[in-house]
Design brief:
This protein has 2 helices and 10 strands; from the N terminus they run αββββββββββα. The protein is of the alpha+beta class and 173 residues long.
Length: 173
């Protein structure tokens, strides 16, 4: 065997001995939307059959297009709720949900509420009404860090100010 053949054989054997692990290339956390449904109907309990989340750049949703399924990006529904995960959401949205009563209802146009948005969707007779719920996840992570730093700073100033006040007060006596 030649030197090249030996090196090639060692290389192939080394490849067989190395552990095989899947490799994931990801860009970090992705924004999400969570939709919780409540009924405003006297009829029986409705369940969700399917749904579409429309993305819009215009405030009137005249340029609406369905959220595409690309890798982890998707819009999914089970019988009582829906969820969306995307690389990034447009500023405006509209839901179109098909229910067990055979009706397909459309929602009002609503805005993205934050990085991890939560919404309450009210099922009406002929349409849907979407309202954003406030949650700490609705704020971007950098905003949460900024708020925490400001709170720590305020507490620190109050504590140091109190200590200085008590020291000066005890020295006057």
């Amino acid at each position: 065997m030649t030197k090249f053949g030996i090196i090639l054989l060692l290389f192939l054997v080394a490849q067989l001995l190395l552990p095989v692990h899947p490799v994931f290339a990801d860009t970090g956390p992705k924004p999400t939307m969570e939709f919780t449904f409540k009924q405003n109907l006297s009829a029986g309990e409705l369940t969700i059959l399917s749904g579409i989340l429309y993305e819009c750049d215009q405030s009137d949703c005249s340029d609406a297009s369905a959220l595409q399924e690309l890798g982890p990006q998707r819009f999914t529904c089970d019988a009582r709720s829906c969820n969306a995960l995307a690389y990034g959401f447009s500023p405006y949205h509209r839901l179109e949900i098909q229910f067990s009563d055979g009706k397909t209802r459309q929602s009002n146009i609503f805005k993205t509420a934050g990085f991890d948005s939560r919404y309450t969707v009210t099922i009406n007779q002929d349409d849907l009404s979407v309202e954003a719920q406030f949650s700490p996840g609705a704020l971007p992570p950098t905003m949460l860090i900024l708020i925490a730093c400001v709170c720590i700073l305020i507490v620190g100033v109050v504590v140091i100010g109190s200590v200085i006040f008590l020291i000066r007060r005890s020295q006057k006596k």
